[in-house]
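Hi there,

I know you've been waiting on this one. I reran it after we fixed the sequence typo, so this is the corrected version. Both the input and the resulting structure follow.
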Amino acid sequence: MKKNSMKKEQFDALKTFCELSRGLEGSRNAVFNLYMPEFFAAPDMSEDDEDDGDLPFTRGRHCRSMPFKASKVSKLKRTIASFAKYLKMSEIETMLVVAAYSKAIADCDSSFEMRDLVDYFDLNAVDFMPLRKYFDGLVKDGIFIKCSNCHRLSYRLEQSLAEAIQNNTTYEKSEKKKIDRYMFCSIVSDMIDERNDSGQTTRRLFAEVEALEAQNSDLKFVQNVKKLVRAIDLRTFFYECCDDFITNLRGHVSDLESTLNDIYDSMRARMNVAADLINGKHPLVVADLIEKSDGNFISDITIKLTEKGKDLFLEEDVKLYSKAGSKDKNLEQPENIHEKKMFYGAELERKIDFLTQSLMDENFKSLQARLEKESMPKGVAVIFYGVPGTGKTETAMQIARKTGRKVYHVDISASKSMWFGESEKIIKRIFTDYGSMCKDEKLKPILLFNEADALFSKRKDVNSSNVAQTENAIQNIILEELEKLDGILIATTNLADNLDPAFERRFIFKLKFDRPTLEAKQSIWQSKLVWLAEDQCRKLATDYDFSGGEIDNIVRKVVMDEVISGTRPDFNFVVDQCKNEKFLSAKHAKVGF
C-alpha cells in the first residue's frame, strides 16, 4: 500500500454544501422528522409505499412533486452529520445555515429574512415554530447577524463562515465579543432609534431587547436589572435612561417626549406612560430608579437616574460620576473670570449697567416673580451685536463675574452634525442641559451663544436643500426654547443683518456695540500701555481707527518684544505695529479692472 493512500482525505466543504442545498430545498418535513418526530411526524404509509421503499413526502411547491425515497433521506442525514461536524453545530442548526446561505446566494444578496427559510423548506409558519429556538440560538451565537433592511428585520451569515464555505477551507468559529453594561445600553439605544426610524413595532423592539438580554445573561448588570424590574418594557425604558446618562455628560437626563416617541409606536401607550410618570405612579419611579423634572407637560419634562439608579447602572464606577467631582469644560466659573476694565460710550455703558443690575440675584428673582405673576415669559434673552473686537463676548463674561453666575458656552461647531436629524437633537439637548443646570445651580447660569448668527440666520426656502430644512428646524427649536426660557441667554454676533426677524422680539435687550469713540480709544491705550504719554495715546487714537480687540493685538506684540529683548520698546515700535495691524492699508491700491 502506498504511503499517500494512508493520508486522510480533506473534507470538501463547498461540495458538501452544494449537495445539501440541492437535497434540502423543498424537503418539507421529510428530514426534520428524523430529528424532531414529535413535531414533524410522518403520515401513515400505505402498503404500496412500504413495498416501494419510499417515504411519501412530496418535495413541495418549489420542485417537481415526487416522493422522497428512504435511501435518499438516509444519505442526506449522513451528509448533514458530516457538515455539522465541520461547522461544529447541531444537525438542525446546520440545515438552517445551509438554507440561509442558499437563499442569500440565490437572491444575489448577502442578507435573508426568517420567512426566506420558511419558503426554502416549503413549510408554513406553524411548521417553523419548533425551529425558532434553533434560529434564535444562531443569532445569539453570532452566526446569524442582524442587519437593517428597509422596514423588515433581516440577517446575514457570519462573514468568516461564508468565506470558509466559499473558499473550501477549515471553519474556525469567531470568538464572541464580550460587552460591558455601557455597550449593552448603547446597543439597546441603537435598537430604539432603529425602531423609530424604520417604523418597526414596539412589540418587536421588546423581543429584540429580550434576545439581547439572553445573549448577555452572564452580565451582572442585566441580572441585577431583571431582579428589580420584571417587565421588558420597563427594562427597555431604564436601559435608554442609562445610555442617556452616559452620552449626555452634563445634564445626564433623557427628554421624555423624545424617549416615548422612540420606544412606543402607539400614542395611547405614550400617554399612559407619561401620565404614570407625571403622577409618580410609574414603576421605575416607585422603585426609586428614575425621577422626573418639574412640569406638567410632556415636552417640558426630563427624566434622570436617581442615586439608586446610578448605583445599579454604574456599579464600581459610580464614584467617577459623583456630583462633587463632576466638571464640564463648557461651564465657566465666575471666580475664574479675570476682572477687566471695559470702555463704552455713555449710552451703551448705561444700558450695560442696567442689565447687570437686573441680573443680580435678588433683583432677578423679583423680576421673574413679577413676570410670572403677569403671565409673561420669565427668561431674559439678550443680544449683543456690532463690529468685531468691540467687547461683546468680554462684556458677557464681566457681567457673569459681577453677578456671580456661571457661563455655559455653546460650542457652535459641535451643534451641527453631518447626520440628518442629529443637529436638531443636539440643539434640543443644549437647552435640556441648560434647564437641568438652572435647577441644580444656586444661581441660574448664563447660556452664552457666541457668534450666534451661525444658528440664528435667516430662514431659507425648504425646497432648496436638506441643509435648508435642517437649519430651519434648528431655528424653530431655538425660537420655541426662547419662548419658554427660564434663565438667562446672551447671544453675540458681528452680523446682525443675517439674523432672522423672528428672533428680534425674543430678545428683551438688544445692545449695539459700535467702534469706540476717540476718547474711549485714548483711554484703552492709556490703560493697556501705562508708560505712554497722554499726547502719544491721543495720537494713536486719532491716527488709527481700531477696535478694542485690535488694540489688544498690538499690546500683545509690544509685550512679546519686551519679553524677548529684555527692554521696553519705544513709541515708534508701537506705531510700526499699528501700521501692520490691518491686512490692507487704506491707501493700498485696489487690484482689478
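Quick highlight: The chain is about 50% helix and 10% strand.

Best,
R. S.
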